[in-house]
Specification:
By secondary structure, the protein is of the alpha/beta class. Helix content is 39%, strand content 20%. Helix 4 links the parallel strand 4 and strand 5. Helix 2 packs parallel to helix 3 and helix 6 crosses helix 8.
């Protein structure tokens, strides 16, 4: 396995390199964001280990630039930032795994092996269906290039539907993901928000991006390639 470690703490970076080398892997080091981005874009790696707090360019921006350039090398974020929003932002930008410092080297190796087994698959950071696109990182929704203003809850419902485009999802699934697994309010609130989204997105019935009601099953976001 060939690994790129992008880490500004030189001693830690060398410790990770030596441990991976002892396990039989080939390792390159980069200590700044721009250097890590250049290496990840111009050299072939099986996986990138990426810190978030880097000089010159944050790990978030490195990750965003890689995915924008359609570089789909698996990225494991290794960072001292342990907040749930930090983790969510990293995954929204295209990270494949997230491990906080201090960490177990045994667990790091296991995570890397798991990423290697998954292989490399395109994972666009921006979700699209027909004329509709949603960028989780920028928190932006566009219809044919024009921005649509959504409340945070509307945005979350739309993101959930886009991530599951092409299959029916139940109200319970939407409530559990967007509201709370223990939400005890009126389940018809989902129907209300779907109505808001239909009006705001104005996607014609039958077109990709339209939210259909599936009797007895819930809602289905039509995906590109679905038959009309």
């Amino acid at each position: 396995m060939r690994v790129l470690v992008v880490e500004d703490e030189v001693r830690l970076a060398r410790t990770v390199r030596d441990g991976l080398a002892e396990a039989g892997h080939s390792v390159d080091l980069a200590h700044t964001g721009p250097d890590g981005l250049w290496s990840a874009q111009h050299r072939d790696y099986d996986v990138v280990i990426l810190d978030l707090m880097l000089p010159g360019m944050s790990g978030y921006r490195v990750l965003e630039a890689l995915r924008a350039a359609r570089v789909w090398t698996p990225v494991l974020v290794l960072t001292a930032k342990d907040g749930e929003y930090d983790e969510a932002d990293a995954f929204d930008l295209g990270a494949d795994d997230y491990l906080t410092k201090p960490f177990s080297f045994v667990v790091l190796l296991a995570r890397l092996r798991a990423l290697l087994r998954r292989g490399v698959h395109p994972r666009p950071a921006v979700l699209t269906a027909g004329a509709l696109s949603l960028d989780p990182a920028a928190h932006r929704v566009l219809r044919e290039g024009e921005p649509i203003s959504l409340t945070p809850r509307e945005f979350a419902v739309l993101e959930f539907l886009l991530r599951h485009a092409g299959r029916a999802v139940s109200k319970a699934e939407i409530l559990g993901s967007v509201w709370d697994p223990h939400y005890e309010g009126d389940g018809n609130i989902v129907e209300v928000y779907v109505g808001y989204l239909r009006r705001k997105t104005a996607i014609p019935a039958g077109a990709p991006g339209h939210i259909e009601t599936v009797r007895g099953a819930g809602y289905l976001m039509r995906a590109d390639g679905d038959p009309r």
